[in-house]
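Thread: quick sanity check before group meeting

JM: Hey all, I'm pulling together slides for Thursday and realized we never actually wrote out the predicted structure for the chain we discussed last week. Dropping the sequence here so it's in one place. If anyone has concerns about the input, flag it before I start.
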Amino acid sequence: MSQDNFKIFFLFIFISIFAITNGQRSRGSISSSPQSPSSSSSNRQFSRGQPESSSNINSPPPLTSNPDPDDDDHSGSQGNSGGGADFTCPKSDGLFADPNNCRKFNLCGNWRAWSQTCPPSLYFDSKLKYCTFKTEQLTCGPIDEAEVRAEERELSQDALPSCQLDDCHLPNCFCTNDGTLIPANIPPSQTPQMVLISFSGALNDLVYDHYRRVLGYGNRFNSQQSRRNPNGCGIRATFFINHEYSNYAQIQWFAAQGHEMAVHSIT
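JM (edit): ok, ran it. Output follows.
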């Protein structure tokens, strides 16, 4: 390669390096420069379409419920209301009927009243002190609490007078202080007595042998009873059984001996 060609080649490389360096500097300055007016205006237009603050957003209207057709006073909705100021509590604590609405009652606590409303189609019973269906026996409105307490004392067994043996004579009266005295002092051997025997729960191997011994059966294969009634018949029991964990072969055996089989109700 001649000297002239070498100079031209070297000059070409130098110019290329210089051009590349200047191009990188120019791109860096453009990226660090502030935004142009057109770009800022576009940003402002974009931000103008969004809500500037939460105060500009309209809140949804409050929910309203339709009045209960069974409620005589539509001004009060279901649930609690803090305003029972117009009601005077007869006692410091308790439930008391509203004088103007059978579906409402007042909950009194420390002489302060809170108005309550029964669920739909229910009415507050002043005697029962809870919301129930509207029937002929429904006691609506305020009542005299003193009369209710007197009626409760009249029906209460605890309020009965003490046993006075000198004033209580058969056949119109009989009483005993401890519950063990037989009327007219009849000897126990001559007194008809009845004992009710019932078993509750599953019938299986855990209780099978125990029940047999209580009822007077001998070994597992013996159906003769050693415990009998005065008439000579074997005693009978009622089994209130349930399906879970029961052995139906053992249930069938007791049923074959004449015992009564019953089941628990769902309630």
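AS: nice. Helices lie at 3-32, 37-48, 145-155, 208-214, 248-256. The radius of gyration is 47 Å.
JM: adding both to the slides.
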